[in-house]
Amino acid sequence: MDKNWSEKNKEIQKLLSKEAAFDEAISKLTGFREELFQQITWIVEGYPDKAFYQMPFAGVNGYHSKTLAYSIWHIFRIEDIVAHEMIAEDEQILFREKFLEKTASPIITTGNELEGEKIAEFSKKLNVKELYLYAKAVKESSDRILLQLQYKDLKRKFSDDARQRLIESKCISEDENAFWLIDYWCGKDVKGLIQMPFSRHWIMHIEAMQRIKNRLCKIARKGIDPVAVCGLSCNHCFLGAWCGGCRTEYNACSFATCSEDRICPNVKCCNEKNIDGCYECSELETCEKGFFVPSNDGANAAKAQSLYIRKYGKKEFMKVQARLHEKYDFQKVQEIIGQDHKEALRILEEN
Ligand code: SF4
Ligand code: SF4
Which of 176, 184, 235, 290 has its CA 20 to 30 A from that of 222? Predict the structure, then answer.
């Protein structure tokens, strides 16, 4: 488990045990959930729909054997059921806010009963944008429930009525891979439920999602030119684990994720000019498009790298990148060559 997340979770659980620290524990828990949810947001914003039904680890043991879409569905179906059928005893977000129709999900269950290809088939049917909005709505609703809790509520146990409600909801499949959840949840008090579906369960599945997306990016980059159209080197970029590169559909560069149809303005412009990259463009020196917008800290460095490629070619460029990154990390290299692009070109030439 991610060490930093694990430590944060442990600290929150410790604070939850002390009445005097209860408010602090809930505030830290909602803050931590926000931090974890950001990972899901970046994944949803960064990747094409097809990424959400791929199973790059199909058949292995572990949560990473599922898909990105399944992981989101599963985390938030479980939380929706537990938060509303058990703790708040009101209507689930899935039904209250019509997310069953919006997500186009063929199931109302947690998905525990699905295996192998069925997970990919199910994932393919989901509307990813609506799935994300469902996850967000569940998170926000649970946060409100958490903020209304008092310390004494933590010890509340669940009677047979709760068990009956869960069964009647039909939200937990009768399949043996799923039905055990009812006994598991009903055997806990509110504190125990907070420990699992509201935090630890998120960590485990979000970590699995990171493994899936890292693998998908790696597959996408295989055999693809590692020189980005703006002149950066994808092989040395700090976003390497998140971005499949701007020559693939897995372009998670911020300039792509913020643009219409997730296409970086530099990529779009190069495509329109039918050129390989900005280094082939006669307007490079004065261009202020996309990555070269003056407000972008990396603009000068990228431009200098493009100028270097124009003068010496990609092969020499990759060699100079390798030499620089032997001495410094990505951030430092960008800083060193982040000044006036003519001066930065001179520094590249000297290395
Ligand atoms: S952010 Fe740009 S340089 Fe970095 S990996 Fe993505 S496309 Fe390549
Ligand atoms: S105009 Fe700018 S963005 Fe377009 S190809 Fe030329 S350098 Fe790249």
Answer: 290
